Recover the amino acids of this structure.
């Protein structure tokens, strides 16, 4: 199935996530084509463009934004550059998909949302997992009452990159650390599942002098209304895990691969109830492609945004609280 109309994408930077996942996802989507890529190193952008079949390569981000043929940009730059280039892209009239974490603070996120609204462009945070149909299916199961009332959620996202000699995630001032990089996933997922905003957060973290004093491991409790808690851990110095469990009064749902899902493999999760347990299996899909399609249809005015830009502000408020809690070893309230 193909679509005649295409959203023409420009990629701002040659980050690994763009090369491995997002660009191929857009190229396989129904609605998008990757028309250009930019890097501050023109040779790098040319090499990447040649490798991925992208027709135009620029040696600066400014040049890409000046290209009137580009409708939307994807920004996978280091975290401390998200605000600047999102705002500059919006002011250039481009729709913007910005990689997570959206910004360094909720205040920055608010500025980005305001700039997009003023420019009349669509802005979204690149949480691809939310576009996978398995999460719609999970919400259906929860709404049916099959596992009862939700009592708690537990999420993990850990991997070990501690041996890297150089990594942008090891720069504190650039928004490095596990909370920014992957802690945002279970936090976002809990908000999505519960449909509510939390009241407080408490986080314990291991800050590593060997890695620029960023948090290489963090464990937290995020308190939601009605005494529901998200417990989570995230790490860049631990064995790999990528899970989510939703615990109810009458059962539970367990995702062994909650955020990363290979596009060529079925998505499988377990449902445990009073009547026994079963596996639910969904056909292989590319959630990066689905994210691109949802984005394009919203940019074209064909459907409302599945996730409004302000959603990114709410997620950053929790991250702000988690970082403050970890640094000061305190419980941080978000009420009021």
């Amino acid at each position: 199935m193909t679509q005649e109309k295409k959203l023409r994408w420009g990629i701002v930077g040659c980050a690994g996530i763009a090369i491995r996942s997002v660009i191929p996802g857009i190229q396989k989507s129904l609605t998008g084509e990757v028309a250009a890529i930019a890097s501050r190193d023109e040779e790098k952008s040319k090499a990447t463009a040649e490798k991925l079949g992208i027709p135009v390569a620029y040696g600066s981000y400014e040049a890409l934004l000046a290209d009137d043929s580009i409708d939307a940009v994807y920004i996978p730059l280091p975290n401390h550059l998200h605000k600047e280039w999102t705002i500059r892209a919006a002011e250039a009239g481009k729709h913007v998909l910005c990689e997570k974490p959206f910004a360094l603070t909720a205040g920055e996120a608010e500025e980005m949302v305001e700039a997009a609204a003023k420019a009349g462009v669509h802005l979204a945070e690149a949480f691809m997992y939310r576009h996978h149909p398995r999460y719609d299916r999970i919400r259906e199961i929860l709404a049916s009452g099959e596992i009862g009332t939700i009592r708690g959620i537990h999420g993990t996202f850990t991997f070990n990159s501690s041996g890297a000699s150089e990594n942008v995630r090891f720069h504190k001032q650039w928004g490095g650390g596990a909370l920014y990089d992957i802690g945002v996933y279970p936090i976002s997922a809990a908000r999505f599942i519960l449909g509510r905003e939390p009241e407080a957060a408490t986080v314990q973290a291991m800050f590593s002098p060997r890695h620029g004093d960023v948090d290489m491991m963090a464990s937290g409790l995020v308190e939601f209304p009605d005494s529901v808690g998200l417990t989570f851990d995230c790490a860049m110095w631990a064995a790999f895990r990528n899970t989510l469990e939703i615990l109810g009064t009458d059962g539970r749902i367990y995702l062994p691969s909650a955020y990363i899902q290979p596009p060529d493999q079925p998505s499988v999760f377990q449902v445990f109830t009073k009547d026994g347990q079963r596996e639910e299996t969904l056909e292989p899909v590319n959630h990066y492609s689905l994210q691109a399609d949802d984005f394009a249809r919203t940019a074209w005015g064909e459907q409302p945004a599945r996730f409004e830009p302000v959603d990114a502000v709410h997620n950053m408020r929790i991250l702000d609280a988690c970082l403050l809690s970890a640094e000061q070893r305190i419980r941080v309230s978000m009420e009021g």
